[in-house]
């Protein structure tokens, strides 16, 4: 029987490490078992599945995933937290072999070192099929895009992020909050909001609201070269989002920007905020044949 962490356990573990949670690393730990179970249920985790968790912290969500029968590959940047975690998981009843803990920066982690760590720790060397994480808030978008780019076996994700960031990720073209994160996430997945989370389920309580975001991978609309060129155009369009595309895209497309955009079937006087990711891709392809 796996037991989840409550407020008393979280505080005791933090006291053991003499840990002062840092804002820099987005360290807000979940202290509420119901919230953990809600995240695991929204992720649709099934028994026997391998899940990647970014930023396991003291292990609140890791234990919920293991309770649901998943094996977890947990990637934590903070050395003290990464070192303590296996001991905590074992003490709370997690079966041996149901977790690998990797100390790494999630913005740099790649599949091969993860497999090697799993081998070294006596775990299974299967690749993760889901990402479930309470992401560090200041780096949640780059971490998410890095994982989607480099871990193609991950077919779906359920991440908790700052509410404003989640709304941006899930925004559709035409909305004021649609931007580079929304367009880039749409390259890889369908993104939708999956519920609000109150501040009191964390220790320490953050001063922003949180939200759950569900991602379901879809076939990418192009290859790696297409993606890189499309993302460069997305960055240019939203770097100067108030400007018309025929102006904002000059730094990437040159003086012929307007003609290229038109050839892609897109209005050069439009702004980036109305374009779908497929529109951006069409511009990238038109630029190549210019
Ligand atoms: N999953 C835990 C929970 O729900 O209680 C902790 C979540 S806390 C919001 C974010 C965690 O991510 C912290 O443990 C922090 O140390 C870790 N973290 C921050 N930046 C990271 C990075 N670049 N790579 C991996 N972990 C990171």
Structure, explained:
It is a single chain. The protein is of the alpha/beta class. The chain has 13 helices and 9 strands. The protein has helices at 7-17, 33-43, 60-67, 79-91, 111-120, 140-150, 163-170, 180-188, 224-239, 245-248, 250-253, 257-263, 277-288; strands at residues 29-30, 50-54, 71-76, 99-103, 130-134, 156-162, 189-197, 202-203, 210-217. A 7-stranded mixed beta sheet has the order 4-3-2-5-6-9-7, with helices on both faces. Helix 6 (140-150) links the parallel strand 5 and strand 6. Helix 8 packs antiparallel against helix 9 (224-239). Bound molecules: S-adenosylmethionine. Residues 25-30, 54-57, 60-61, 75-78, 81, 105-107, 134, 136, 139 line the site of S-adenosylmethionine (SAM).
Strand order of the largest sheet: 4-3-2-5-6-9-7
Poorly predicted regions are none
Task: Let me know the number of strands.
Answer: 9
Number of helices: 13
Q: What is the average of the pLDDT values? A: 95
What profile does the largest beta sheet have? Answer: 7 strands, mixed
Shape: elongated
> What proportion of the residues is helical, as a percent range?
40-55%
User: Between the first and last Cα atoms, what is the distance in angstroms?
Assistant: 63 Å
Ions, cofactors and other bound molecules: S-adenosylmethionine
Structural class estimated from helices and strands: alpha/beta
SSE topology string: HEHEHEHEHEHEHHEEEHHHHH
Strand content: 15-25%
Give the C-alpha Rg.
21 Å
List the helices and strands and how they pair.
Blueprint: H1 7-17, E1 29-30, H2 33-43, E2 50-54, H3 60-67, E3 71-76, H4 79-91, E4 99-103, H5 111-120, E5 130-134, H6 140-150, E6 156-162, H7 163-170, H8 180-188, E7 189-197, E8 202-203, E9 210-217, H9 224-239, H10 245-248, H11 250-253, H12 257-263, H13 277-288
